[in-house]
Every structure is written in C-alpha cells, then in structure tokens.
Amino acid sequence: MSYFKLATISCCILIVFINSCTQRKSELKWEKNIPIIGSQSSFRASDLNKDGILDLVLGAGKNEFQFAEQGIIAFDGANGELLWQQESNDQVFGSAAFYDVTGDGIEDIFIGGRSAVLKAIDGSNGNMIWEFNIGYEDDSILKLVRFNFYNCVLVPDQNSDGLNDVLAVNGGNFLAPANTEKGREPGVLMLFDSKNGAIIAADTMPDGKESYMSPVAYSQPGSEEVYIVFGSGGERIDGHLYLTTLNDLMNKNISSANVIASEKGHGFIAPPVVADVNADGFYDVIAISHGSKALAIDGKTLKTIWSKKIEDTESSNSFAVGQFTDDDIPDFFTFVSRGQWPDSKGSLQVLFNGKNGNIEFIDSIGCTGFSSPVVYDFNKDGIDDAIISINNYDCSRGFVEQISSTLENQLISIDFVKHEINVIDKAQKFKNIFTTPWIGDLDDDGYLDIVYAQYFNDGSFLTSFLGMRARRISSSIKLKKPMIWGAYMGSKGDGVFPIEK
Predict the structure, then answer these.
(1) 67 CB-contact burial (10 Å; exposed 0-12 / middle 13-18 / buried 19+)
(2) 228 C-beta neighbours (distance < 10 Å), count
(3) Residues 419, 383: contact at Cβ < 8 Å?
(4) Which of 44, 90, 96 lies closest to 69 in space, CA to CA?
(5) Nearest to 210 by CA among 134, 293, 122, 148
(6) pLDDT tens-digit map of 475-494
(7) What are phi and psi of 180, to 5 degrees?
(8) In DSSP terms, which residues pair with 79 in a beta bridge?
(9) β-pair type (5-6, 420-428)
(10) SS3 for 15?
C-alpha cells in the first residue's frame, strides 16, 4: 500500500498550490506538439531571444542511431513555439550547459549525446559553433573517445583565453554485450576549449572501466581549487567514485584520483551532488551507486559520513536536494528501480535524511523511470515538497517489454508533511521515462511556472520515440524564496546545493 494518500481533485487545477478557487487561477499557458521525435534530455532555461522571458532548451532526436533534424530544440518560453532546431546524428540525451562564448549577451549551449555527439550551439539562432569529431587514431587516449557524451560542466578558464572551459566525460559502448566486460573501453574525462572545441586535456578512468556518469565540479568555500567528482562502472560492471582536481586533469594524469567509494557488481551511473551535511562549512559529496548504495562522503577527510543500501533495487537516478526534515541539514530524494536491469519492475521513491542517512519516507508510486524530482516549498509550511513524473502500467511486464497503450503518465506533487499526493496533470497513452520537469519563474511575474514533457505511447516499447508534447503551466504559487532545485541537477544544472553564508 502506498505511504501517501491521493488528494481529492477539486474545481481548481493544481489544488496543492492554492487555498481557494478565488485566488489567481493556475492554467495551461501553452502546449507544443512535435511529431516523430522524443527525448531523454531534461529542460534547461535561458532567455535566448531577449524578450525578458526564459526559453527552454531540450536535447532530442529519433530512435537510436538515426539522424534527426531536431536533435536539439529551443522553445519560446512565452508561447512554446520553436525558436530554432539543430540537427544530430543520434539521440542527444544530455541536458544543456549555458555560457556566452559569442559575446552577444545571449547564452550559448553545450550539449552531448550518443555516438560521440558534443556540440556548442549559438543560443541566439541555433547555428553550430563547433562539434566534436571522432578520430585521433594515433592517440592512445583520444582514440577511445567515440561513445556517449554526458552532461557538460563549465569550469574556470584553464588556457588563458578569458573564457570558461567545458568539462565532459565520454564513455559507454552501447554495442558491448550485456553482462560482460568485453568491448567496454575505458571512459575518458575531458576538458574542451569553449570557444572552438579544441581538446585541452584528457585522461582515462583510473581503473580502466567504462563510464556513464556526468562529472560534477565545485570549489570549497574560500578556495579556488576546483574539485571534480566522476565515476566508473556500469549496470553489471564494478566501479568507483573518484575525486580529483582540475589541476591533475590539466596535467593529463588523474591516475592518483582519490577513491571515495566503490562497489562490486555495479558502478556509479547517476551524477552525485555536493552539499554540506555535517554543518562544518565545507561541501560533502552525496552519491548513489547503481546498486542503490547511497552514501555521504566528508569533503575534508574523504571519510564516509553515512551509508545506506536499498536491497534488491538499482538506481540510475540522481538526487533532488531540499529541506525535507525539521533541521538545517539538506536531505536527498530520489527513485530506485525494483529488480535487475533490464528486467526492472516497479519503482520506489526514497527520501534520505542528510544528517544520518536514515530513510525518512519510502513509497512505490508508478513503474520504473529515470527522470528526477524537482523541489520547492509549495505550501509554505517550512518543509520542501517535490514534483515528479511517473508512469502507471503493469510494472510486472518489465522495462523492456511492450507496454499496453493504456499507460498513463502523471505529473504529481508530494507533500511530505501531510503524506499527500496531488495530481497536477495526467494523460493516457503518454509516457515520460527520462525527462525531469523544470520549475521556476519563466516570465519574472513572481509566480511559479512548471514546464514538462510527455511522449506519445502506442503500446510499443517504453524507449521508442513516437512524438512528444511540451507543456507550460502558469501556477498560482507566489514564490517567496530562491529556487534552488528546480531542474535536473539543480536550477543551475551543476549538482551543487549552495552553503548558506
């Protein structure tokens, strides 16, 4: 039985957010339908047309190994119309990183995906600035760079051109046979010149394993040293969680990176986050392995603060960070999947107490999916709530089996104080497996906007791309504090939950 109870639907949309039907109404501001394509990316927001309203960028594409004219798309935040599109040779599943390298005052986009797709795109018009091209056969490291690029991270200028540089990981041979290490080349941690795409530095995983993890970069308060957290291993491949420095990468040698966590039979796939969980004023690293071992690592000593494993589950989902308990220590909410990949059957939502790792809530809403929660205190009770996207179908069929066309996608909010679920939107014959919703204030009117995607489902495989729709809800929630975790890997997309000064 579910831990939470389903709230009764009333005459108002988004009933969790309003006290009565006499206040400002929540409404569907726009909807954009796009045929054929789909996405495993998540929304990022930036004002690309200088109209004062944030616009949305999403990686997209057709099914695997197919060229698509709409590999990266930008939605006008005001009305949902496409501002521009950029082609891609394969699915672009990374989420955009923003940084203005053209000097026009509009942020440009850095985004990656399958088949070594990595592009820099002019945010004003969608034109390509540069892209990575496979080659380097005479280089022992760079010849390995022919697999997936994950989320990029901007780091301080390292080649003295006055511009931040782009950190990324390439790895994950999608053609390698399952349950074997055959064909699984080492992942590569890389640094690119943001202006022209030149490779500044690169090195392989210290253990020689594959990598599927987006890196996280941060500096401790009062220090300019840049630390990088990265991971190795896969669904069935041993792996490690590492901590190195940008200086070591610049020296093209991360072999001495600190091993801060390890696991047998599983690697580290979901990106970690950094936050201060022991109130010492330093960032700690919080991660979850593919084997669903969640842990917090002290940022000063690199010792484990706490560790908790969810038995008989696996996780490829990153944490959402918020204040879910009545102390000042941030807490961590995520999904895990029941069973073993690819025969995943069902989903658990788990909330870890940031202070000690205790499980504060656990529930089983919907079936396996890989989007992440977003967080805000919607009802102003001092405890954060979460919005998640779930899929309801017969979970016993498994993730890779054909699913009934009666599948229903739901966008829901969770109130952790009242133990209550509120349905924001639901649609039969739609699904969402990967895309994290975006929440924030698109038009700077002081009220919360919600942007989310749903993907057409005809009863075929869950991962098939058949067309999509993006929707924006303008809500009645008055924003009272900054939005910290309103998107995948946080509102800034960097995985950092800031320490209050």
Answers:
(1) exposed
(2) 23
(3) no
(4) 90
(5) 148
(6) 999 999 999 999 999 999 99
(7) -150, 155
(8) none
(9) parallel
(10) helix
**What tokens were used for 58?**
């999403």
How far apart CA 329 and CA 321 sit, in angstroms, is 10
Distance CA 478, CA 441 (A): 10
Identify the residue whose tokens are 């102003």: 380
403: closest CA among 392, 412, 387?
Answer: 392
Residue 389's contacts (CB-CB under 8 Å, 6 or more residues apart) are 369, 371, 409, 410, 411, 412, 432, 435, 436, 437, 452
pLDDT for 10 equals 32
Query: What is the distance between the alpha carbons of residues 187 and 215, in angstroms, rounded to a whole number?
Result: 12
**Whether the Cβ atoms of residue 46 and residue 53 lie closer than 8 Å to each other:** no
Count of CB atoms situated within 10 Å of the CB of 424? 22
Q: Are 231 and 216 in contact (CB under 8 A)?
A: no
Asked if residue 5 lies in contact with residue 420, where contact means CB atoms within 8 angstroms, the answer is yes
Q: List pLDDT tens digits, range 386-443.
A: 999 999 998 888 777 777 778 999 999 999 999 999 999 999 999 999 999 999 999 9
In the structure encoding, which two tokens stand for residue 233, read together? 């291993």
> For 3-145, where are the alpha helices, taking DSSP H only?
none
Both tokens of 280, joined, read 């010492």
**CA 88 vs CA 64, 119, 143, 214, 441: distances in Å:** 11, 9, 21, 20, 30
Q: Give the pLDDT means over successive 10-residue stretches in the chain (501 positions).
A: 42 42 83 98 98 98 96 98 98 98 98 98 98 96 97 98 98 82 92 98 98 98 97 95 98 97 96 98 98 98 98 96 97 94 86 98 92 96 97 83 84 95 95 97 98 93 92 96 97 96 72
Q: The tokens 């560790």 sit on which residue?
A: 307
Q: 335 Cβ partners below 8 Å, 6+ apart? A: 315, 317, 347, 348, 349, 350, 369, 370, 372, 373, 388
Q: Please report the beta strands in 264-377, taking only residues with DSSP state E, as ranges in sequence order.
A: 273-275, 284-288, 293-297, 304-309, 313-314, 320-322, 331-340, 343-352, 359-363, 374-376
Backbone φ, ψ for residue 286 (5° rounding): -120, 125
- What pLDDT does residue 215 have? 98
Which tokens sit at 122? 């002019």
| DSSP string of 477-490, one letter each residue | EEP-S--SBSSTTS
Residue 463, pLDDT score: 86
CA-closest candidate to residue 478, choices 430, 500, 445, 452: 445
CA gap 95, 113 in Å, rounded:
9
